[in-house]
Amino acid sequence: MPADDAATTVTPSLSLYREIDRGEWARLAADMAQPLSETEIVQIRGLGDMLDMAEVREVYLPLSRLLSLYANATKRLGADTSAFLREPDTTTPFVVAVAGSVAVGKSTIARLLRELMSRWPGTPRVELITTDGFLYPNAELERRGLMDRKGFPESYDRRAMVRFLTDVKSGAPEARAPFYSHMRYDIVPDAHITVRRPDVVIVEGLNVLQPSPSPSDMAVSELFDFSIYVDAQTDHIAAWYVDRFLALRRGAFANPSSFFNVFAHLTDEEAVQTAMGYWNEINLPNLRENVLPTKHQATLILDKAASHSVARVLLRKL
Hints:
The chain is of the alpha/beta class.
């Protein structure tokens, strides 16, 4: 080959991820039994999610199996390390993060993975924690002038989140997380979620993959064994957010005890305008500035289409 031809040869682009399309990923579930009934799936499904039997079987069943394999391999490595050091086995829970935008469906995915992973041998005890519990109470957010930035990194008690996960990964007999009420839109005083050395802990939230604010501080993400980012085009997420707001207006917002009861009597047009105002002023800036930049920190990315179904999976290479 002439020298000038050699110089113009294009090297194939490399990627940190294996890119697996929906059809290829779905074939991985060909020999797996569906452990959930349609009724169970309906109970897990969140507002606006188009989760059905096919989506569970073709996307989340193989994902749960992959997570179970990672968890069991990590457990074996922990046991082998303890044996090498001639110490008792001190293997700690396998921690999975689920990150992504508001309204992208990460809460439903986290609930679904909790149910699916608990059906696999080796991971029967699975706990779910949401980072909402680590938001500062509304009174503290008001004091700090952060109520309009609820959901941004600075609105969370990051140190409390690190302490909780450090307890989990240190093998503490139990670890306690604060409880957040979506009805009250606030932390519930003296209420906690307690985990006692389960096989797996799933941590779901907007900013779980955020870097630490300073080099001397530990990032929450350093305490994860596997992380998932739920991705979609921004205009699709905006549409899902508005649809969810409309559904909540007809449902949870109608409860007189709801913090958002003030929105229950809006007209459709007023509700859409209100939802888009919150999206454009709070959720979209947070997505662009803080959430989306963490996508490639994830071990696996679920890329959703406009229908809310997963179109492809990106798995980081080992």
